[in-house]
Amino acid sequence: MGRKSNVLLLCSFGFILCIAKLALHSHYPNIESFSKKNLQYYVDSPSCKMPKSNPFSADIMKVFKKKHFKECSTDNDLVLSEFDPELRQYRLYIDDGIFEKLSKKVPNATLRCQYQVIGRNKSASYPDKDFTLSDPRPLNQSFLVPKDIDFLSTQCYAVNGKKEIKLLQEDGFLFVQDRLSHNTKNPEGDRPDEESKPNVIILGIDSTSRLNLRRSMPKLHEFLQRPGWFEMQGFNKVGENTIPNLLAMLTGNAEEKAMAQSRFSHGGFIDKLKYIWQRFKNYGYQTAFGEDCGKINTFNYNKPGFKKQPVDYYLRNFIVALETILKTRREFGNVFCLGRKLGFKYIFDFARQFMQRFEKVAPVFGIFWSNSFTHEDFLGATALDKVFWEYLLVYDALGFFNRSIVFVLSDHGYRYGVTRQNAKSGYLEERLPMMFIYVPPWFRKRYPQYVENLRTNQNRLSSGFDVHMTLHHLLQLNVTSMSKFSPNLRASQCRGCQSLFFELPHNRKCSQAGIRDKWCSCEPIETVTNKKHITKVALEVVRHMNQHLEDRNLTEICENYTLKKVVHMDRKIPVTDESVEDDELHTYVISFYTRPTLAHFEATVQWNTHKKSLIMKVDEISRLESYKKHSKCTNDPVIKKYCICIPF
Ligand SMILES: *[C@@H]1O[C@H](CO)[C@@H](O)[C@H](O)[C@H]1NC(C)=O
Ligand SMILES: *[C@@H]1O[C@H](CO)[C@@H](O)[C@H](O)[C@H]1NC(C)=O
Ligand SMILES: *[C@@H]1O[C@H](CO)[C@@H](O)[C@H](O)[C@H]1NC(C)=O
Ligand SMILES: *[C@@H]1O[C@H](CO)[C@@H](O)[C@H](O)[C@H]1NC(C)=O
Ligand SMILES: *[C@@H]1O[C@H](CO)[C@@H](O)[C@H](O)[C@H]1NC(C)=O
Ligand SMILES: *[C@@H]1O[C@H](CO)[C@@H](O)[C@H](O)[C@H]1NC(C)=O
Ligand SMILES: *[C@@H]1O[C@H](CO)[C@@H](O)[C@H](O)[C@H]1NC(C)=O
């Protein structure tokens, strides 16, 4: 919305208010005027007003551009994988017609294909970082894949005598091998009834706010409007990046303390957490986890990963192997193509095979996560929209949505880049990831009260800890209130959090949902774009920091700061009438770099517009990058955070 139309709307609420606001805004010509009444809220209660913002606002549309999706390969597949339902085994076929086409330029060519088995190296010190690769073996027509092979790579060559060899195609294949011991009479009919053990599928896209979903993925968004889908519009992130937010959902504890104490880097720590998939396993589920982009995988980015394979079907080693042995192409800042196929497609094909394979055999719990398109580039999602949507159509045609509870979700929105620097909605965008929950027709019929609650909860404040409780609830749907939940199932970091199938309190506060103040979006906020004003505040912040060094007698060990540049500055807008009493005091959240060494800080400060003075607690500042290297002169964890040690 433009400033002019905003002012007009504002004026229609009352002449006096209008004059007052206009007067106020003359100090801040670039802060969009903000009326409490003409706003719509995702959550609207006395203690939480979570503002809805426009995904198509002019400031963001200026930098928004649909990205073209480039296929990894336009050739047809020479090697195809099929499941033989008679033998209950996979087969690889070679398409001779495709070979004819591909080998035209090689005279008198004959085809030679080979395969290599890929696996997990259990004896490696960091099995998640490694993989095993067998020697090449000849690949014959209609190759029946042995049941102990999970992954393999293939290479096909056009060969003319011994003289000329041309690599035609190389690929990776994954097989969901059924290792259950079956009732021999009816191996396909073992599955417990779907209503008592529904499939649970989590489809995740990294760094996708609900705003960017609407802006960049219209097809996906439209699919998510179908009956049975519910959007948790009051869903707020609980931690900075992927790991705390996923851990909140998967373990009930964001483990930020353990992260700060570097416990994640100790081999085995990651294995010890209590993941929800273990409970699903205990209830007879088959479990799966797949993620594209090996470098930035949730449990592996700057971390050792799992020692022991965490789920029954684990894609990690396959992806690491393909990233190593196949030709890759980067796009949107990450590995995008693994050879001839999109990394994303490996993940979502894995999901399809996993669900298909156990359709009549066992209930399944799976997490399928994509980083490749969206992690670095806020426009990457525009290229992912159609691909993602087409998978949902396939899943629908296969009946997955008749049998499964499905989550389409993200961990957080964009934390840096243009949305944070240039757009007023950046602060919210970072904190409000998308969160959609699907329940199939039978569920809606059998549990109308749960569905009613889910509908109500769409506009209540919720968090990843509630999602965690919802997952627990799916294992015991006959439990009809939180008071009947076993206390040891409660999310350890938010004992009062609850299943989203039960009604959330209307007047819930962030603290009741396990959301710290820093991430809480219950207070509306806008990104300030008036550069002069930003600089004025930032220089004051830096001055306070230098003063603080003096006050704490740290100037002999710590460098004096100078401002390098401000990344963004957000302004909190108080909602409750008590907190507006001091019109002159504004709360800003400011992210900036200082020299020397380009330290990156985020500070929450109060600015007195009248006195042009600042209130700031320097010890509470956040440091946004690793500071190990420059903080060796002190052992105090608080001082370490901001002291740039003077080199001697
Ligand atoms: C292809 O094979 C034919 C007959 O087998 C032979 O006459 C011809 O010389 C071969 N061409 C090449 C380029 O090797
Ligand atoms: C597995 O890792 C161990 C330890 O690094 C190494 O010695 C061994 O050769 C690896 N095995 C395979 C099959 O790659
Ligand atoms: C593939 O074919 C070759 C030659 O025809 C044969 O020696 C080999 O045993 C076959 N391999 C498999 C796995 O069937
Ligand atoms: C899903 O269920 C509906 C209604 O029960 C049925 O009409 C439809 O054919 C099913 N879809 C698939 C693909 O099984
Ligand atoms: C729910 O059902 C399970 C399995 O049928 C049973 O063991 C459990 O006691 C039931 N719980 C409640 C609260 O009814
Ligand atoms: C200030 O720090 C220096 C060096 O770290 C120390 O020698 C000095 O005693 C300190 N002064 C006060 C007043 O604490
Ligand atoms: C520290 O830096 C500020 C600029 O940020 C400068 O004004 C001040 O003089 C410096 N102080 C010292 C002690 O170098």
UniProtKB/TrEMBL annotation:
It holds the Pfam family DUF229. CDD domains: ALP_like. Keywords: Signal. The keyword tRNA-binding does not apply. GO terms for cellular component: extracellular space. Residues 1-25 form the signal peptide. PANTHER family: DUF229 DOMAIN CONTAINING PROTEIN-RELATED, FI08016P-RELATED. This is Uncharacterized protein. It comes from Drosophila suzukii. The gene is LOC108012638.
